[in-house]
Amino acid sequence: MSFTELPATAAWAHREARSGFEVAHLRHDGGGHRMDGCTTAVEHGQAWFVQYDITIDPNWATRAARVTACSAAGRRSVRLEADGAGHWMIDGSAAPHLDGCLDVDLESSALTNTLPVHRLSLSVGMTAAAPAVYVRATDLAIERLEQLYRRATDDSSHQCYDYTAPAFDFACRLVYDGSGLVLSYPGIATRVA
C-alpha cells in the first residue's frame, strides 16, 4: 500500500508524556515537501513551545530544519542542514557524530515520525534501522537516536509499524493514516485533524 497525498494541515493532541497540542502545515516544495509547525505543551509543570520548519527532498530525506524553542529557560534556535546522503551541519559546523542519519526527529513532534516510513517504503514484515538526528524539546540538545521500524500490518485505510528506540527503552505500535501521518502514537499523541 503506497501513501496518498499529504493533507495541507494536520494536528495532534499530546497526552500522557506531556499535555499539549501540535499543528503543522504541509506543502510540496520543489519536488519534496516543506513542513512548518508548532507544538505548545506543559511537561513536568513547565510550559514551552517549539516551532519548526523542515525541508524534505523528493526521496524523503531531511535536507534542512530550523527549530526554535521557548521556555522559562529562554529562547533558543538551531539550524540543521544535510546533504541527503547522511552528512549534517549544526549551525554551520560539521556534525560527524550524526553521519548516516537521513531523518530529523523532534522530541516535541508527532509529525516527524512520518519521515522514515515514507522514505523506507517497507513491505509488511520488513524491518529497517532509521537512525535520526534527535532534537530535544526545551534545550534543543541534538543527539543521534537509533530507531527501528517494522511494518506490522495493513488494512484498507491504515498502516501499522512497530517502533523501537532502545536508548529510551521505548517500543510501541504506531498507526498511520493513508497519507502516512501518525494517527496514534501511544503515550505521546493522537491525531485530531
In short:
Pfam families: Glycolipid_bind (PF06475). By secondary structure, this protein is mainly beta.
Map the helices and strands.
Elements lengths: L8 E6 L4 E11 L2 E12 L2 E11 L5 E10 L2 E9 L5 E3 L2 E2 L8 E4 L7 H7 L6 E3 L2 E4 L6 E4 L2 E7 L4 E7 L4 E7 L5 E4 L3 E3 L2
Parallel strand pairs: 9-11
Antiparallel strand pairs: 1-2, 1-17, 2-3, 3-4, 4-5, 5-6, 6-7, 7-8, 10-13, 11-12, 13-14, 14-15, 15-16, 16-17
Commentary on this structure:
- This is Glycolipid-binding domain-containing protein.
- The protein has one domain (9-191).
- The longest helix is centred in the middle third of the chain and has 7 residues, at 114-120.
- The protein has one helix and 17 strands.
- A hairpin with a 4-residue loop joins strand 1 (9-14) and strand 2.
- The chain is mainly beta and 193 residues long.
- It is globular and about 45 Å long.
